[in-house]
Write a structure and sequence with these properties.
There is one protein chain. It is globular and about 60 Å long. The protein is about 55% helix and about 10% strand. The longest helix has 29 residues. With about 250 residues, it is α/β, with parallel strands linked by helices. Belongs to the short-chain dehydrogenases/reductases (SDR) family. One of its GO terms (molecular function) is all-trans-retinol dehydrogenase (NAD+) activity. This is 11-cis retinol dehydrogenase.
Length: about 250
């Protein structure tokens, strides 16, 4: 009875190891990653660099770019990018093209993201949502559209870093909304670019210790949100409710 199950598990493990050991042409494989100042983006940039890929890493801050460049090999190149600024996105796209040329872009990883204010929806403003959506949803959309011709040239792939909160809205605020939106964009993009050989995938991380999940920053943002509420609203909720949210 258990023999077929055991054989199935062994076959699955063998196929998994085989896939993990597959070699790619790293000398010709250019990968552009956003949000490489810290967290997943920085780790991925260094890992791919170690494996011989031609990493093109974008950072929001000069200090983040300099720190990454010092830790990487000469194959890795950095640029500054604000995914919320269309002009910055266009400059980055032209910068990428100077490296990839006719080869095209093997991979795009849309990793840049922010948490924003996470708290009860009635406490929030339209701007609270807009700031998060601008980075987490509209940012990846803009970057993808700008680089799509280069991805089609290489029959490459798009990897969008979403979240488990893109499937389950566990809290209020723009974060869950933004990740739901990015997953919907990924699904529609997947169908639209498949005829051109471009593949689209999402990665849904859980709770990892990054700048996005820094509890002190999240609590400070919630406290600032509470402080701007009218006194009548604060009295209606009470300090005990605020403590529970924290």
């Amino acid at each position: 009875m258990w023999l077929p199950v055991l054989l199935g598990v062994l076959l699955w493990a063998a196929l998994w190891l085989l896939r993990d050991r597959q070699s790619l042409p790293p000398s010709n494989a250019f990968v552009f990653i956003t949000g490489c100042d810290s967290g997943f983006g920085r780790l991925l940039a260094l890992r791919l660099d170690q494996r011989g890929f031609r990493v093109l890493a974008s950072c929001l801050t000069p200090s983040g770019a300099e720190d990454l460049q010092r830790a990487a090999s000469s194959r890795l190149h950095t640029t500054l990018l604000d995914v919320t600024d269309p002009q910055s996105v266009q400059r980055a796209a032209k910068w990428v093209e100077t490296y990839v040329g006719e080869t095209g872009l093997f991979g795009l990883v849309n990793n840049a993201g922010v948490a924003g204010v996470i708290g009860p929806t009635p406490w929030l403003t339209r701007d609270d949502f807009h700031r998060v959506l601008n980075v987490n949803t509209l940012g990846p959309i803009g970057v993808t559209l700008a680089l799509l011709p280069l991805l089609q040239r290489a029959r490459g792939r798009v990897i969008n870093i979403t979240s488990v909160l893109g499937r389950l809205a566990a809290n209020g605020g723009g974060y869950c909304v933004s990740k739901y939106g990015l997953e919907a964009f990924s699904d529609s993009l997947r169908r639209d670019v498949a005829p051109f050989g471009v593949r689209v995938s999402i990665v849904e991380p859980g709770f990892f210790r990054t700048s996005v999940t820094n509890l002190e920053s999240l609590e400070n943002a919630l406290q600032a949100c509470w402080a701007r509420l009218p006194p009548a609203t604060q009295a209606n909720y009470g300090d005990a409710f605020l403590t529970k949210c924290e």
